[in-house]
Amino acid sequence: MARDSEATRARILDAAEAEFAAYGIAGSRVDRIADAALANKALIYKYFGTKDELFDAVFAHRVLAFVDEVEFDATDLPGYAGRSFDLYERFPTTLRLTTWYQLERPDGKLPAIVASNDAKLAKIEEAQRAGKLTTAYSPLELLTEVRALAMSWHLHTPELALVRRPSRARCREVVVESVRRLVEHD
Amino acid sequence: MARDSEATRARILDAAEAEFAAYGIAGSRVDRIADAALANKALIYKYFGTKDELFDAVFAHRVLAFVDEVEFDATDLPGYAGRSFDLYERFPTTLRLTTWYQLERPDGKLPAIVASNDAKLAKIEEAQRAGKLTTAYSPLELLTEVRALAMSWHLHTPELALVRRPSRARCREVVVESVRRLVEHD
DNA sequence: AAAAGACAACTAACTAGTTACTTGCTTTAG
DNA sequence: CTAAAGCAAGTAACTAGTTAGTTGTCTTTT
After folding, report:
1. Assigned CATH for B68-186
2. Nearest to A151 by CA among A74, A73, A70
3. How far is A136 from chain B (nearest CA, A)?
4. What is the pLDDT of residues A52-74, one digit of tens each?
5. Which residues from A are below 8 Å from B178, CB to CB?
6. I want to staple A139 with a disulfide (CB 3.0 to 4.6 A). Which of A40, A124, B59, B134 is the partner?
7. Which single residue has its CA nearest the C1' atom of nucleotide C18?
8. Residue in B27, B103, B149 nearest the CB of A145
């Protein structure tokens, strides 16, 4: 095997992503990551520092890449919700990583995410001023509810998952339609 | 009963609830629970078995108690959402426990929760048949979206929490109003 | 072109500390 | 006295992080 540090880093990142998504930070084992990545444990520490820092690297690499992957159009929030839904379907680990991040890093404030949020809130406010969006809710209120609806199907309790879920297309339709009702002028 | 084992059990349960809510199953430390409960570690194992079983006991004791704490009225889903919101405000640990449960126990299916869900779905179906509830969504779809909206404010990312949140009363109003729009006949 | 040197990639084995869980004994109430 | 409650002191296994050394590759010198 030729030596390729870049490839090794990538393998470690991939393995770490799967491990952290499955077990969270506290539950993940560095040895398991090393095994899965076919890399030596010491390399993980050399390339990424501590376990926590490895999580940060994974989170930044995967989640931040998707923050702006979904196009945001304040005048079409149903469409935004639908595209968010699609992303959660395509990359199921992303939401799990985000949830672990929320639970295990309650004080972690990534500048890129903060900036992305601010931009979205500003766009909503602008759309409201232009009369293209309901003013029944503040920008933060809108973003909060739209996001909640977009990930509603992916935050099911294990028990609700027992009930037969509608088709993916129908779930998406429900999300989009719910947001449409939320933002429609009265 | 010599000495008060019931009180000791209760102290352990309380301490375990706080610990699990804060750190999850993998991140929790039995020693910390014992210290916080002013109880000996061996008693934890004597009364509750393993750490996993202790989590189950906490989850059953706290969360199951609240499953039917909130009165469910299929003809007044906005009211149900509001009352759910109130519960999340009153007992912030409950939602965290539930989230850890979802992440760390993806296969855990508690009969009491399943039964409670089934009952709610049946009530929704009945209300729909009686023409008292929109039929634009299936019972599962309605329950999913209503729940997502009810906990929308409590699933904020750390980054969104930086933005000044509206007053509790206003958040509640937003939840109730969102559900009202969701279920209104068109 | 070949040998020597430099350096980065990589590794096995280890350390120091932690953690879930147990055992054997003491204390207390009835 | 007895039975249950309670505890100090363990133990075996695990785990994050380190160390000292090896291997492969590229560059420089002759």
Report:
1. 1.10.357.10
2. A70
3. 9
4. 999 999 999 988 888 878 999 99
5. 145, 182
6. A124
7. B29
8. B149
The correct CATH number of A1-66 out of 3.40.50.280, 1.10.357.10, 3.40.50.2300, 1.10.10.10 is 1.10.357.10
Among chain B residues, the shortest Cα distance to A26 is held by: B27
Q: CATH topology for B1-62? A: Arc Repressor Mutant, subunit A (1.10.10)
Tell me how many degrees the CA angle A179-A164-A80 measures, rounded to the nearest 5.
20
Nearest nucleotide (C1') to the CA of residue B45? C21
Using the structure, give the distance in angstroms from the CA atom of B48 to the C1' atom of D6, rounded to a whole number: 15
Domain ranges, ordered by start, for chain A: 1-66, 68-186
* pLDDT tens track for A32-52: 999 999 999 999 999 999 999
Strand C within 7 A of B42 CB: yes
Tens digit of each residue's pLDDT (9 = 90 or more) over A137-160: 999 999 999 999 999 999 888 888
Which residues in chain A are closer than 8 Å to B27, comparing Cβ atoms? 24-27, 104
What are the distances in angstroms from CA A6 to CA A1, A9, A116, B165? 14, 5, 29, 43
User: Å from B7 to nearest chain A CA?
Assistant: 30
Please give the Cα distance from B65 to B60 (Å, whole number): 7
Other C-beta atoms lying within 10 Å of the C-beta of residue B100: 26
Task: Give yes or no on whether A1-66 and A68-186 have one common fold.
Answer: yes
| Two structure tokens written together for A18 | 């799967």
The answer to whether some atom of strand C lies closer than 7 Å to the beta carbon of A40 is yes
Please tell me what DSSP assigns to residue A162: G
